[in-house]
Amino acid sequence: MASIYDLKPKFQNLLRPLVRLAARRGITANQVTLFAFALSFAHGAANIATHGARWVLFALPVILFLRMALNAIDGMLAREHGQETRLGALLNELTDVLSDAALYLPFALLAGLEPGLIVLIVLFGTAAEMAGIIGAQIGSVRRYDGPFGKSDRAFFFGALSFVLALKVAPGQWSTVLLAFAMALSFATIINRSRNALRDVRTQESGHA
């Protein structure tokens, strides 16, 4: 299924001059990864501390865009500038799910939103990333299948945050949207698992 992740190559092309500059300045992929995580954690903490202040909610789409850019930059620095390390791979996967939790779980504390659905979206999102990683472990590749990958979750929560910042009161509409996002998250786990297993079966039949 299609996902916002499919737009990543075009986004990377726009960032490539900035990546070259970062490499020349001695900035490492791991430094960028950790900065993106710190930025996510700081916003989540601000969201909790201010009980969802308007300026914090308005800031989330910007934070999510910066995080997306930083995630693309650290990957390009690693692949295109000889900075790939085991530590970098570990940090990349761990900080992705931790950043999601830091950014999105605070919404469970906002009045009017259904906390159980938000927690499930975050849990299913973590499971979807695990399914993607396990794909490579069983002989497929790192899976990024949709319909609700990391970029899609970011778009969803960024849009939700913006609407709430406009003082639109949560209600049935927000519960329905959260339930839909939860269902898409679960579908992403299924898709990534199924496609990984299909790849492995195809490879095994080709070697038979």
Give the helix level as a range of percent.
over 70%
Query: Which CATH top level class fits?
Result: Mainly Alpha
Q: Tell me the series of helices and strands, N- to C-terminal.
A: HHHHHHH
Q: Got a strand count?
A: 0
Structural class: mainly alpha
- Number of helical stretches of at least 4 residues: 7
Distance between the termini: 29 Å
Shape: globular
Say which CATH homologous superfamily is assigned.
CDP-alcohol phosphotransferase transmembrane (TM) domain
Mean pLDDT: 93
Short description:
With 208 residues, the chain is mainly alpha-helical.
Task: Compile the SSE list and pairings.
Layout: H1 8-24, H2 29-49, H3 54-80, H4 86-104, H5 115-137, H6 150-165, H7 172-207
Summary keywords:
208 residues, mainly alpha, 76% helix
